Amino acid sequence: MITTQLENKVLSICFDRSDKMNAITDAMYLAAEKALIESSDNKEVRVVLFQGAGDHFTSGNDVVEFINKPPTGGSPPVAKFLLALFRFPKPVVVAVTGLAVGIGTTMLAHCDYVVAASDARFKLPFVDLGACPEGGSSLLFPQLMGHSQAAELLMLADVFGADKAAQVGLVNKVVATEDTLAQAQKVAKKLSLKAPGAMIKAKSLLKQSYAADLELRLVQEIESFGEMLKSDEAKEALTAFVEKRAPDFSAF
């Protein structure tokens, strides 16, 4: 589920499913989208803070739902959430602990300040699932970190740590695990005290050069993602995941 709490102009949005490492379901994507849209024009909300319940930020898409109901069509729930996050006009802060898998990593490129625990782990498993990058990462990552670093993260798809995430520009600050949320809250509070109109204009101008391209890329990625999940490669990858074995792509 998604839980929210508004305090001192900061809306905390929590991926609250700790028994599943905060794996995100369609219902959770839609709830998070709703919270963002409702906060866009709400003067009581000046900053949004994303966090995960328990030990992890999020392990990404719920695998069972992902297999039984893959994100197909023009606007699946995950796409609605990503577009709402991209379009959100106010500052977004994130506290990352534990795992940040798939969208748990790609969404960071849409946020404004990310605090990560020193032992946080990141992974972008899209090619391992027989699919393509999502979340605008195929556009934003090369811009942010250069082609070779983006290719390493999106094509090798290895787990990487908080220091690497900071090095490539996905994370602003790395802190001790127990300090992660408090540090993110501190940043969110500081941002909430600044002139709200100036903050919105600054964010808009920062994104202006790539906003139109990014919106188009987000849609292209999710459409490609859905189509690729129908392929034999993806079927082998997902079957191997369920069977807890390495996939065999030798026939392709």
What is the chains' assembly state? single chain
Per CATH, the class of one domain reads: Alpha Beta
Identify low-pLDDT runs.
none
**If strands are numbered along the chain, what order do they take across the biggest sheet?**
1-2-3-4-6-9
Distance between the termini: 38 Å
Main beta sheet: 6 strands, mixed
Number of strands: 9
Radius of gyration: 17 Å
Q: Helix share of residues?
A: 40-55%
Beta-strand proportion:
15-25%
What order do the SSEs take from the amino end to the carboxyl end, as H and E?
EEHEHHEEHEEHHEHEHHHH
CATH topology of one domain: 2-enoyl-CoA Hydratase, Chain A, domain 1
Mean pLDDT rating: 95
The number of helical segments is 11
CATH second-level architecture of one domain: Alpha-Beta Complex
Shape field: globular
- CATH homologous superfamily placement of one domain: 2-enoyl-CoA Hydratase, Chain A, domain 1
Alpha-beta content class:
alpha/beta
What is the secondary structure topology, with strand pairs?
Layout: E1 2-7, E2 10-15, H1 26-40, E3 47-52, H2 63-68, H3 77-87, E4 92-96, E5 99-101, H4 103-106, E6 113-117, E7 121-123, H5 137-145, H6 147-156, E8 160-161, H7 162-167, E9 173-175, H8 180-192, H9 196-207, H10 211-228, H11 232-243
Parallel strand pairs: 2-3, 3-4, 4-6, 5-7, 6-9
Antiparallel strand pairs: 1-2, 7-8
